[in-house]
C-alpha cells in the first residue's frame, strides 16, 4: 500500500479540524482507505498557537504546499474566490489532486476548474463544500445514479435556520440575529448567510450534479429572511405550515428553477422538523422517490469529516482510469445539457399572501376576483375580526401552485386598490407532493 | 467506453423494477457512469406476462445467467439463503461481479461470500440490502470514512413502522397488522417483519460496516412489536416520547451492542418524526456528530435505484486495483476487530416500566426502594388516581440509563411483591445525547 501525502492550505476552523481528525483517527482511516493518509505539509497565513503540529513542516506561504513535490493531494481550506482559484489551478498544473471545502469557489469557478482537472488527469473533490458533514454530494452523484432527479430542496445554511427556529417563539429577526452573532453562529457581516448567497452557492452545485447542467451561480435567485416576521410565522403555523429558508432547484422541460427564499413547508413533512443550526437536503428521484440527508452543515470536525472522506476517495479514485471516475457534476461532460435557468416570473410555486385590507364591505370580493382573473386558486383563506386595528384587517391567503408571473400581476393590481393598504406580503410555499 | 453487460436473476418486485429503470433511464445512467449498462440476460423461475423484455434473452433457469460468458455483472434478486448463496458463489467462481439486494444472504453468509470475492478479485455490492433506496451503505462505508462511529440507530423495517404509526391513533396491533396485510405492506406470515428479524439482518450489516467487525447475525437480539399496546404508546407520548421499533448498534470497549426492540425516543428528535412505511438510519461519528439518512426502505423502483447505483459503482470499481477498492464492510479485512456482541444483560439503556400496583399504602415507596437498591435512578414517574380500576393502578416510570442486568433484577424483585399484580411491562428508551 502506497501512502498518500496530504498538504493542508489554511489552518482556520476547518483546517484545524482536518488536521486533528486525520491525526487522531489515522489508524482507523487507514483501515478504511487501504493506505496511510499522511499530512506532510501545512501552510497558513497565521500561526495557530493552540495547535500542536508535531513534526509536520509549517509555512506561512500557502503556495509552498502546491510546490512541494512530496504532496499528492492539496487540501484547499483558505476560502474566498481569487487566491483560492489561483491555488487550485496551480495545484492542478503541478499534477496534484485537490480537495476543497470552498462552496463559493466551486459554484463560481467550478466549470473552469473541473475542465482544467479533467485535462490534467487529476481529481478535484468537494464534498465539504455542500452541507458540511453530510455526505450529500456522494448521495446525489453516486447513490442517485439510476434516477432522473426532478427537484432538490435544502436547508443549507445553519445560521438562517437557527434564526427562523428561534423566531417561532415570537422573537424579532434583529433580536435573534444579534444573539446568533454573540453565540458565534452568525458572522459580524451576516449578509452571506441571511441573504441566501451562501445557500445559493450550495444549491447551484447540487442542481448541477442533480440535473447534469453546468454551474450557473450568477443566475440563481436569492431572497433573504430579514423581512420575515413572527406574525407571518405564527399565521403560517395556523395554516399547518412552517417557514424555512429553502434552496429549491427544479428541473423542468423549459429549464431549471434555481432559487433561495423563505418558503412555507407543511409541518407534517420531515424537512419542517429540521431545527436550529442543522442542515438537510431533500431530493426527489423518479425511481427512488424522496430521500433526505440530515446533519451538521458546518463546524470544525463535521466539515473535516467530509474533507477526509474526499481524501480517502481521491486515494482510491486516483488509482482508476479517468473515464471511469465519478464525474465532477455527476454526469460526464458530454452527457450534460445546456439548460437555462428560468427567470423568477417563470417559476411555479404556491404562495402565502398577507394583504392589509381596509375594513370596508366588498373588499374580500375584490381580492377574490383579482385572484380569479389571474387564474389563481385559493387553498386557504384566513381573516379574523379580532385582528381589526385602526380600520385595517389582515387577509391571509394560501394559493395553489401557479406561475409566479400570475401572482406578480395580481399583487400589482391589489396594491393599486384604494381598499388595500401598503404592500402585499408574499412568501412562497411548497407542498412536496 | 466499454459497455457493462448485466444479467438479472429473479424477476419479482425488485427484479422487475431494476429492468424497468435500467431500460427507461439508460441514457441518463450512461451519462453518469461513463459507460453503457446493458441487460444481456434475464432469468426467473416464473415468466412475467406483464413485462416487455424486448430482445433480452429470458430463461427459467437462473444459473444460465451465471454461466453466460457475456455477462459481466450478476444481479441476484431471488432472495432467500441457500440457492442465493450457491448462485453468488458460482458467479464469483466464474469471475463475475455481483450485485445483490439480499439482506438475509449478506447478514448470514456475508463473511464467506466477501472472502471468496476478495480471493477471486471481483466485486460484490449490496447497497440495496439495507434500507432499500437510501444510499446508507455508501454513507457509512465512504462518507463516514474519517469517523469512529459510536452508535447506529435505524427504523429499518417499513411494515413495523407503519403499524406503530397507525397505533398512535389508539388502534390495537392485531387490527393494524390485518390492515397492513390487506394493503400489501405486510406479508401473510409477518414474523420476519414484526418480530425484528428483517431489521436484525440490516442492523448486523450496518454494525459491521460502521464498527469494522465481522458479521455476527446469530448474536443479534430481537424483540418484536406484537406486545406493544396503544396504552403504552399514549403514556410514552405523555412523557414526551414516541415508541419506534429500532435497530440499535453501539460500540463499547467491551464489545458491540446489537439489538432490535421497541424503543422510546424523544418526540423532539428527528427520528421520532419518521412515520409510515419510511425508513431512516441515524448514526453518530466522533468527528461529524449525528447524521440521518431517510427515504423508502422498500418498493420496486426505490430498491432498484440502489441496485443500479451499485451496478454503476461496480463498473467503476472493477477498473481499479483490488487494494484500493471500498472494503466490503468499510474496513480492510486486516483492519477489522474481532469484538464480541454483548449479551442483553450487559446492554446499557434507559427503561420505561409499567407496573400494575395494588392500591395500598406504601407501594410506591417499595417500588422506589427496589429501584434505588439496584442503582436505578428515576427520570419521570406517573401515577394517576383516575386510572384506578378494580383496586389496581398503573405506575409508569422512566429511568435514567443503566445496565439491563440491574433492571432485570429489579423487575424480578418487584414481580415477587404481593403488592404488584402480574408482569411488569418494560420498553427500552434512548435519548441520543
UniProtKB/TrEMBL annotation, chains A, B:
Residues 352-429 form the ACT domain. Its EC number is 1.1.1.3. Keywords: Amino-acid biosynthesis, Methionine biosynthesis, NADP, Oxidoreductase, Threonine biosynthesis. One of its GO terms (molecular function) is homoserine dehydrogenase activity. It catalyses: L-homoserine + NAD(+) = L-aspartate 4-semialdehyde + NADH + H(+). The keyword Metal-binding does not apply. Pathway: Amino-acid biosynthesis; L-threonine biosynthesis; L-threonine from L-aspartate: step 3/5; Amino-acid biosynthesis; L-methionine biosynthesis via de novo pathway; L-homoserine from L-aspartate: step 3/3. InterPro entries: ACT-like_dom_sf, ACT_dom, Asp/hSer_DH_NAD-bd, HDH, HDH_cat, HDH_CS, NAD(P)-bd_dom_sf. It comes from the Bacteria. Pfam families: ACT (PF01842), Homoserine_dh (PF00742), NAD_binding_3 (PF03447). Belongs to the homoserine dehydrogenase family. NCBIfam families: PRK06349.1. This is Homoserine dehydrogenase. It comes from Marinobacter aromaticivorans.
Amino acid at each position: 500500500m502506497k501512502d498518500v501525502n496530504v498538504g493542508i492550505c489554511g489552518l482556520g476552523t476547518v483546517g484545524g479540524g482536518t488536521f486533528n481528525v486525520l491525526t487522531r483517527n489515522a489508524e482507523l482511516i487507514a483501515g478504511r482507505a487501504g493506505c496511510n493518509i499522511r499530512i506532510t505539509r501545512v501552510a497558513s497565513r497565521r500561526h495557530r498557537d493552540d495547535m500542536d503540529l508535531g513534526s509536520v513542516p509549517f509555512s506561512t506561504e500557502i503556495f509552498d504546499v502546491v510546490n512541494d513535490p512530496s504532496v499528492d493531494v492539496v487540501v484547499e481550506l483558505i476560502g474566498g474566490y481569487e487566491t483560492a482559484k489561483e491555488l487550485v489551478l496551480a495545484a492542478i498544473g503541478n499534477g496534484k489532486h485537490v480537495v476543497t471545502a470552498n462552496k463559493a469557489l466551486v459554484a463560481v469557478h467550478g466549470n473552469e476548474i473541473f475542465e482544467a482537472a479533467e485535462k490534467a488527469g487529476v481529481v478535484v473533490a468537494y464534498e465539504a463544500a455542500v452541507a458540511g458533514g453530510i455526505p450529500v454530494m456522494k448521495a446525489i452523484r453516486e447513490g442517485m445514479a439510476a434516477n432522473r432527479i426532478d427537484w432538490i430542496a435544502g436547508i443549507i445554511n445553519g445560521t438562517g435556520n437557527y434564526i427562523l427556529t428561534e423566531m417561532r417563539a415570537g422573537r424579532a429577526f434583529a433580536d435573534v440575529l444579534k444573539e446568533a452573532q454573540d453565540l458565534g453562529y452568525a458572522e459580524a457581516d451576516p449578509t452571506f448567510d441571511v441573504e441566501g448567497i451562501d445557500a445559493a452557492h450550495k444549491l447551484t452545485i447540487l442542481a448541477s450534479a442533480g440535473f447534469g447542467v453546468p454551474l450557473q451561480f450568477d443566475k440563481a435567485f436569492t431572497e433573504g429572511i430579514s423581512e420575515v416576521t413572527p406574525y407571518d410565522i405564527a399565521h403560517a403555523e395556523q395554516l399547518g405550515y412552517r417557514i424555512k429558508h429553502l434552496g429549491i432547484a427544479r428541473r423542468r422541460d423549459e429549464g431549471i428553477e434555481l432559487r433561495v427564499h423563505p418558503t412555507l413547508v407543511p409541518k407534517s413533512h420531515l424537512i419542517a422538523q429540521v431545527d436550529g443550526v442543522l442542515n438537510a437536503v431533500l431530493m426527489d428521484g423518479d425511481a427512488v422517490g424522496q430521500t433526505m440527508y440530515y446533519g451538521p452543515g458546518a463546524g470544525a470536525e463535521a466539515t473535516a469529516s467530509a474533507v477526509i472522506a474526499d481524501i480517502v476517495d481521491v486515494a482510491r479514485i486516483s488509482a482508476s482510469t479517468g473515464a471511469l471516475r465519478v464525474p465532477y457534476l455527476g454526469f460526464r461532460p458530454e452527457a450534460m445539457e445546456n439548460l437555462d435557468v428560468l427567470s423568477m416570473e417563470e417559476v411555479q410555486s404556491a404562495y402565502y399572501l398577507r394583504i392589509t385590507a381596509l375594513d370596508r364591505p366588498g373588499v374580500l370580493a375584490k381580492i377574490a376576483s383579482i385572484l380569479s382573473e389571474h387564474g389563481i386558486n385559493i387553498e386557504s383563506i384566513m381573516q379574523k375580526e379580532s385582528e381589526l386595528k385602526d380600520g385595517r384587517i389582515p387577509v391571509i391567503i394560501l394559493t395553489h401552485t401557479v406561475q409566479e408571473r400570475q401572482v406578480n400581476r395580481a399583487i400589482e393590481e391589489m396594491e393599486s386598490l384604494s381598499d388595500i393598504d401598503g404592500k402585499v406580503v408574499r412568501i412562497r410555499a411548497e407542498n412536496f407532493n
